Amino acid sequence: xxxxxxxxxxxxxxxxxxxxxxxxxxxxxxxxxxxxxxxxxxxxxxxxxxxxxxxxxxxxxxxxxxxxxxxxxxxxxxxxxxxxxxxxxxxxxxxxxxxxxxxxxxxxxxxxxxxxxxxxxxxxxxxxxxxxxxxxxxxxxxxxxxxxxxxxxxxxxxxxxxxxxxxxxxxxxxxxxxxxxxxxxxxxxxxxxxxxxxxxxxxxxxxxxxxxxxxxxxxxxxxxxxxxxxxxxxxxxxxxxxxxxxxxxxxxxxx
Length: 255
Fold this sequence. Notes:
Elements: E1 2-4, E2 10-12, H1 33-40, E3 44-48, E4 53-55, E5 63-69, E6 72-77, E7 83-89, E8 94-95, E9 108-111, E10 115-121, H2 122-131, H3 133-159, H4 161-177, E11 178-181, E12 184-187, H5 193-200, H6 204-216, E13 220-222, E14 228-230, H7 233-239
Antiparallel strand pairs: 1-2, 3-10, 4-9, 5-8, 5-10, 6-7, 6-9, 11-12, 12-14, 13-14
Helix pairs in contact: 2-3, 3-4, 4-7, 5-6
């Protein structure tokens, strides 16, 4: 988008990419506006600085989190000390990290930037779900969607090899955080190579080599500000085997 400054000079600025109201259900949300308001009625909101932890792996799981502002990394540390980045949550997402069999957090939730999150205590959530059958059904469907998304990501990481896994991760990032531009798709969320390595399950050195190879082939480049831009999405789809899986919707193929 081009704007004219006070001096009369025209400058190109990036079109805003996040104008939705996080209090309304997003396009991929299974919840209605009424249900979102019902959930908000039992929330209390907290703010977290970039780098702060909402919870640590092993902490008692006592709440569900609703991301109203910012981004949250859900990560796990392996026995040998490596960090795996499981997903990145954006405004409008719910974060549930517990199940009936384990009362503790299996992962750690860390603020990627400044975060505002609604905290829903589990006892109050259970009461609300017991009173609202439709909300309970939609909550179960949403949990099923998360399970399918995780299964899809794990399958790509295991079956595609490291270059294919990186291609799959870049595709998922475009679906979750992509902004269509005349020359490609800008991934508006800025990630370090270390964070990309944690998403793919490899080392930063391997990510550096693979990104340089993709750049040399003209498949991606680095936009101003250090964010990645995908120039040839179809090439990434070929590397990730997407033509053999045309029925995978964006709700599944996302971070």
